[in-house]
Specification:
The chain is built from four helices and no strands. The chain is mostly helical and about 100 residues long.
Length: about 100
Amino acid sequence: MFGNIGPWELVLILLIALIVFGPGKLPDVAKGLGKAVNEFKNASSGIQKQFQDALKEDETPKPIQATVASPEKEASSEQPQEHKEASENHGGEPQA
């Protein structure tokens, strides 16, 4: 975040803050700024934890439920192909 700020830039920022706020008020401003940064870190870490927990919850494998075929479907699929064709050709009437 502050990787590009060198020592001279930091001195300049502190000097401007000293001029704007004055020597008596500067420690209070720094203390308030420190508390604000700390609260921001705590809030962001809480959000990150919630996000990671949600991702872990989504990654857990869900049990696979076996489906059982109904007896009617099994009976119709076991009927020989010749019998199916014969019943279709004769209007569903059994052959004698």
